[in-house]
Amino acid sequence: MQTLFTNPKVDPSQHPDLNQYFAFGISVDCVVFGYDGVDVKVLLIKRGTEPFLEYQAIPGDLVHPKEDAVTATQRVLKDLTGLQNIYLEQLQTFAGVDRHPLGRVATIAYFSLLRIEDYNPKPSSWATDAQWTPIQQLGEMAFDHKEIFDVALERLQRRVRHKPVGFELLPTEFTLTDLQHLYETLLNTQFDKANFRKKILAMGLLLPLDKMRKAVRYRPARLYKFDPNRYEALSNRGFLFEL
After folding, report:
1. Where are the alpha helices (DSSP H) in the chain?
2. Euclidean distance between CA atoms 142 and 105, whole angstroms
3. Hey, what CATH topology would domain 162-236 get?
4. Contact at 8 Å (CB) between 13 and 73?
5. CATH 1.10.10.10 location in the chain
């Protein structure tokens, strides 16, 4: 027989020594990375309110008293940027004592990676701008948002090295040059062309197509597509994707 847990009634006045511990604010911050076929970018807003008026910031806000953190991420993104139905993965909690000038606020950071062409941000609420910004062009940011961004970027780079999530950012059909450029951009590195192609093709995750992409200055390049069923089957047998 299952026993249901019920919250006991507690009189806060009987525990005045604990009041300071229940005076924290909780916020969520959403680091949304995107790829447009050329650059890796991050979705930033411009704050239209104090503190940090007119600073670049990661979309974020306080969690409502009767709201869970996951629900708050969807609300915050919609309210500030217009983006909806974004899958976000929890990154880390940032709880520095002085991270917010108005009081103690711990923030739960989330991150995501998506194709920019599928989303068109529009600022609203107290955000006066919402832009996809190249990650090399970040200015001074509000609060500790640069630290949050740095941690998210490091997590993203580890993720794409060990899981084929990068394929989700490409068109259904792509060339090996497209794929190499994507990973070089995500990882901020350069791969030897021959070694990269040899390694990728040896994984057996790509299906060559009987199609060629015609280019004006170069010879036609073969098109490929990612085979998710093959990846799942290989993963079940212990295959590890690693660049």
Report:
1. 69-81, 145-162, 176-187, 193-202, 228-236
2. 14
3. Arc Repressor Mutant, subunit A (1.10.10)
4. no
5. 162-236
Q: Average pLDDT of 40-44?
A: 97
115 contacts 167 by C-beta, under 8 angstroms:
no
Amino acid at 206: L
Residue 4 has pLDDT above 70, yes or no: no
Q: Locate 141 and state its tokens.
A: 């940011």
Q: Is the bond preceding 51 in cis, omega lying within 30 degrees of 0?
A: yes
From residue 200, alpha-carbon distances to 94, 229, 241, 243 in Å are: 37, 16, 9, 8
Residue type, 13: S
| pTM for this prediction | 0.88
The DSSP result for 73-137, as a single string, is: HHHHHHHHH---S---EEEEEE--TTSSTTS-EEEEEEEEEEEGGG------TTEEEEEEEEGGG
Instruction: Work out the pLDDT band at 238, boundaries 50, 70, 90.
Output: confident
Average pLDDT of the segment spanning 31-36: 96
Q: Is the pLDDT of residue 2 over 60?
A: no
pLDDT in tens, 68-123: 999 999 999 999 999 999 999 999 999 999 999 988 999 999 999 999 999 999 99
CATH fold for domain 22-154? Nucleoside Triphosphate Pyrophosphohydrolase (3.90.79)
Contact 157, 239 (CB under 8 A): no
